[in-house]
Amino acid sequence: MKVRQIGAVAAASVLALSLTACSDSASDGGAGGGGGGKAFKVGIKFDQPGLGLKEGTKYTGFDVDVATYVAKELGHDAADIQWVQAPSAQRETLISTGQVDMVVATYSITDARKEKISFAGPYFVAGQDLLVRADDSSITGPDSLTGKKLCSVTGSTSAQKVKDKYPGVQLQEFGTYSECVTALASKGVDALTTDNTILAGYAAQAQYKGKLKVVGQTFSEERYGIGLKKGDTATCEKVNTAIAKMISSGEWQKAVDANLGPAGFKVDSATNPPKQDACS
Ligand code: GLU
């Protein structure tokens, strides 16, 4: 009698599991969740070559590789990852409302953001730089931007830095960096500022090759973290362990070479690979 009851309970939970699996894969469509497990939602950029790029149903970049590695260490199959677009200004909201499980999107760790979410990491250290047209020799760094039209993205540390430190600059804020690149190429703005990693990716794109150049004078330290729900220390610790393993196993270097190498990006070895902060 007891054995039969246990059997019934087991059968019922198997049924429940398979029902969950069915409904998940049905609602996720082609965007992920195809592995039959529960979808794991990850916020990335969709328009930053070398970091987070969506081309049709293909997702590539260093952030995509880091997220895939970390997800696997947390027990999520690559096929169960559902990629969600996470523009700079929406990242905290996507996390706090539970629309994503984590954000891996050139997301700098800052105290202001830590008031709303928690960060694991850092997993990479970049620096703020400028992208200009290749024939422009008048812009050599942030101090030569006075009176120039500069583009950046709403909700980014890049735009904030300009407002705080270079108030004489005419700052135009868009929702994404790709909009800024288009404006730069068509002379709607004179420069674009954000992380050197992102700028290198655009400069190397076929349509901009030889037309745009990265100035190469970084003026900030951007420590990329993985955004998590505020106070989820348990997950933060697991993510930090996963990042440390990605680095010690050589997979981090492989991902750097594969994604940032083609753009000729030089990683700052004084700050990379970084040690992870304690979770709090
Ligand atoms: N890393 C900076 C930030 O998190 C700039 C790049 C971005 O907007 O994604 O704000």
How would you portray this structure in words?
With 280 residues, this protein is an alpha/beta fold. It folds into 2 domains: 40-125 and 222-263, D-Maltodextrin-Binding Protein, domain 2, CATH 3.40.190; 128-214, D-Maltodextrin-Binding Protein, domain 2 (3-Layer(aba) Sandwich), CATH 3.40.190. It has 9 helices and 13 strands. The strands form 4 sheets. A 5-stranded mixed beta sheet has the order 10-9-11-8-12, sandwiched between helices. The chain has a 3-stranded parallel beta sheet with strand order 5-1-6. α2 (62-73) packs across α8 (233-248). The longest helix is centred in the first third of the chain and has 27 residues, at 2-28. The termini are far apart. Bound molecules: glutamic acid. Glutamic acid (GLU) binds at residues 88, 105-108, 153, 156-158, 194-195, 222.
